[in-house]
Amino acid sequence: LYEWFRWSRQARNIRAGSYEISTGTTPRQLLDKMVRGDETLAFVRLIEGWTFKQFREELAKADALKPTTVTLTDAQVMEALGHPGMPPEGRFFPDTYAYSKGVSDLAVLRRAHHAMQQRLAEAWAERLPDTPLRTPDELLTLASIVEKETGHGADRGKVAAVFLNRLRIGMALQTDPTVIYGMGSAFDGNLRRADLQRDTPYNTYTRAGLPPTPIAMPGKASLAAVIRPDATRALYFVSRGDGTSEFSETLTQHNRAVNRYQRGQGK
User: Fold this and answer.
1) pLDDT tens sequence across 65-121
2) CA distance 169 to 201
3) Distances in whole angstroms, Cα of residue 186 to Cα of each of 75, 148, 182
4) 29-44 residues labelled b (16+ CB within 10 A) or e (exposed)
5) Secondary structure string (H, E, C) spanning 45-99
6) pTM (2 d.p.)
7) How far is CA 24 from CA 3, 30, 39, in A?
8) Nearest-5° angle of CA 64, CA 65, CA 71?
């Protein structure tokens, strides 16, 4: 077969890769496939709201992906990507990535990181002039919170607006997902009052402003919501129990909504 490829004078045009050959494939068909670079690709999907830990776990079990970073720490991974000292959380864009079988997992990491850099730069360029956010990193951090707090896509712009309104007036964000993230492996699935009172850099009940890093990978919709939030003066929201949220401008309205949707005390 190799001699036939040489005889065809196209051997130098063959592209390296992984190719799927079905029964009955002729040498000519195989040569054409390899010259076109018609490779058999594998795919890995990264989900909005995942942490970097979950991202790495998905890469580790991805089909035919060479695990070159499996023994590296998070800091070493970022150094290998050319960004030493950068916290990895939230820095990778959730999407479906195709890759050639046998390629290094570092290649997928690099593509996802570059994609987030692009998305973040595009979003930051479209920011409103009155945004309280000062840097692209703050945009990324808030978008990660919005990603974790949104149970219904149509509410995303209102959720973002609530947090932006709070930042404008110096009001604590008071968002559970940041507290949970700060607890790490200590979180057992049940968030208690004591957890909300225990101070950590990620406890937005005890500390004003944004946490020091993102808490997850935000998707395109969450980035857009933070840059172009809904026009509302709401400062509060509470889950209705069906995935949607009730938004309120005052604490009195909010307490009434909490009683109705969380405590079952009627309208």
Assistant:
1) 999 999 999 999 999 999 999 999 999 999 999 998 889 999 999 999 999 999 999
2) 20
3) 22, 19, 9
4) ebbebbbeeebeebeb
5) ECCCCCCHHHHHHHHHCCCCCECCCCCCCHHHHHHHCCCCCCCCCCCCCCCEEEE
6) 0.84
7) 20, 10, 18
8) 130
